[in-house]
Amino acid sequence: MTPVEPLSPPAAPADDGLIIAGKRYRSRLLVGSGKYKSLEETRLATEASGAEIITVAIRRVNIGQNPNEPSLLDVVPPSRYTILPNTAGCYTAEDAVRTCRLARELLDGHKLVKLEVLADPKTLFPDVIGTLAAAETLVKDGFDVMVYCSDDPVLAKRLEEIGCVAVMPLAAPIGSGLGIQNRYNILTIVENARVPIIVDAGVGTASDAAIAMELGCDGVLMNTAIAEARDPVLMASAMKHAIIAGRQAKLAGRMPMRRYASASSPIVGVIG
User: Fold this and answer.
1) To which H or E segment does residue 54 belong?
2) Which residues contact 243 (CB under 8 A, 6 or more apart)?
3) Distance CA 205, CA 39 (A)
4) Looking at the whole model, is its pTM more than 0.85?
5) What is d(CA 126, CA 169) in angstroms, rounded to the nearest whole number?
6) Distance of CA 110 to CAs 40, 66, 79, 147, Å?
7) Are 209 and 237 in contact (CB under 8 A)?
8) How far apart are CA 209 and CA 211, in angstroms?
């Protein structure tokens, strides 16, 4: 009997890449660079994640502001990764705009930024009014803005209309690890969007990331879920595979949900 060759899993479509500001990325996982125990752990976890876009908190991390201190760019070099400066820690639109302009100077004219304008230090929820104001200013100033926001479909659409290149609704509060708390809001945002939607904040484990992708999100950004895992490098690898699995499941199309059983082996035609 001729042995049957095992079937290879189907490849994702050739054009199935994440496109941000006109640039295509293979990975749909974006990772942060904070909260690690050391720069070496940052390097190892980043490599294990397979991510190509790495967020950097300009107000908290040295990327050249302090020439006599170790630089994050030594372990996450711009020649290998797209550095995404963010405005973490900014509580006013003016502060956020100033931080983005500083990042542009430090990174030789770099235009891609992640905008955060926070409203409250306890919840770290975004300031809606400040976020809108800062986004308008930055877009007019020539920045490619990826914007962190609440999971409000109306707000998400408004930020897209302003000209943001990606909208990044939270799944749950930053660093909470609670997972996606309102799937219907995220789904509504995805259904109405013409720019990439990237879940940002609240992911705790691999299943959360897979759910985000199954909902149709274009990517997921995370930091704490990896950095505060017992084994950050292993968790980074888990997140990489969860993103891939969730994306493939979305492309494949899940089976219908039914209230009652549906036999895997139908009895029609069974010999009596």
Assistant:
1) strand 53-57
2) 27, 28, 29, 209, 210, 213, 219, 220
3) 23
4) yes
5) 10
6) 25, 19, 13, 16
7) no
8) 5
Lowest-pLDDT range, 9-18, 102-111, 255-264?
9-18
d(CA 204, CA 37): 19
Let me know if 114 is a catalytic residue: yes
Among 35, 111, 114, 157, which one carries the catalytic annotation? 114
119 CA to centre of own chain: 21
Single-letter amino acid, residue 236: A
d(CA 72, CA 86): 14
Block residue for tokens 């490619």: 144
Please give the structure tokens belonging to residue 160.
């897209």
Q: 117 exposed, middle or buried (CB, 10 Å; 0-12, 13-18, 19+)?
A: buried
Residue whose C-alpha is closest to residue 95's, from 117, 119, 121: 117
Distance CA 170, CA 199 (A): 6
Structure confidence by residue, pLDDT tens digits, 155-177: 999 999 999 999 999 999 999 99
Distance (Å, whole) CA 94 – CA 87: 11
Q: How far apart are CA 254 and CA 106, in angstroms?
A: 46
Measured CA to CA, the distance from residue 265 to residue 263 in angstroms comes to 5
Nearest to 243 by CA among 201, 198, 202: 198
Confidence check: pLDDT of 18 > 80: yes
Opening angle at CA 35, ends 213 and 235, nearest 5: 45
Cα distance between residue 159 and residue 115, in whole Å: 11
Residues making up the chain, counted from first to last: 272
Based on its alpha-carbon atoms, the radius of gyration of the chain, rounded to whole angstroms, reads 21
Which two tokens mark 62? 């040295």
Query: Residue 242, class by beta-carbon neighbours within 10 Å (0-12 exposed, 13-18 middle, 19+ buried)?
Result: buried
